[in-house]
Specification:
By secondary structure, the chain is of the alpha/beta class. Helices cover 14% and strands 29% of the residues. Belongs to the transferase hexapeptide repeat family.
């Protein structure tokens, strides 16, 4: 049984740790966080160094996960860790459900109540947060974050690093670009371009001067 090192001891990182603890796959769970040494604990877990100290802890007996909510930061650090030979497992809470015919990339997490249905594909460093659902044949590119309560219809495609806020819903077959932000409670019923922010029901772009 390996140890687990989580980089980032904020709210998201602690949810990652709680999920990992529930899985029972690791002997010990510890954190790296840039508030160390002032920060000694993240929840019930020990903080043992800053994020830049990960090479000191990474060996064949340690798995690593990036517990950072920001999509670009999480994905960028994960790529750096992978280039250095670190192993980043996928993490699925025991009270989540993932179809055996779905695929989940390295460093991705599916929290409690999450569902990933048949033939869906999650890229690397994806977050399916508490109670979010991904229906059949969806494709989520690397670094996507579905906030709690997001629901995707079937055949939805989401580009890299896009973020969907609390309770957003996406109609089946919609294509969402990369680096796009969808506000809490929005209803997305048509395709969205790269790099825009949308809010409302139905979801509409926020004017640039806002």
């Amino acid at each position: 049984m390996k140890n687990l090192l989580i980089i980032g001891g904020g709210g998201h990182g602690r949810v990652v740790a709680d999920c990992a603890q529930a899985c029972g796959r690791w002997r010990q769970i510890r954190f790296l966080d840039d508030r160390y040494p002032e920060l000694q604990r993240a929840g019930r877990w020990q903080v043992v160094g800053t994020s830049g100290e990960w090479p000191r802890f990474s060996d064949g007996q340690v798995d690593v996960l990036v517990g950072i909510g920001d999509n670009a930061s999480r994905l960028g650090l994960q790529r750096k860790l992978e280039d250095a030979g670190c192993h980043l497992p996928a993490l699925v809470h025991p009270r989540a459900w993932v179809s055996p015919d779905a695929s989940i990339g390295a460093g991705s997490v599916v929290f409690a109540g999450g569902m990933v249905n048949i033939d869906a594909h999650l890229g690397d460093a994806v977050i399916v947060n508490t109670g979010a659902t991904v229906d059949h044949d969806c494709i989520l590119a690397e670094g996507v974050h579905l906030s709690p309560g997001v629901h995707l219809g079937g055949n939805v495609t989401i580009g890299p690093r896009s973020w969907l806020g609390l309770g957003a819903v996406v109609r089946n077959g919609v294509v969402i670009g990369s680096d796009t932000m969808i506000g809490a409670g929005a209803a997305v019923v048509s395709d969205l371009a790269d790099g825009i922010t949308v809010v409302g029901v139905p979801a509409r772009p926020v004017p640039a001067d806002d």
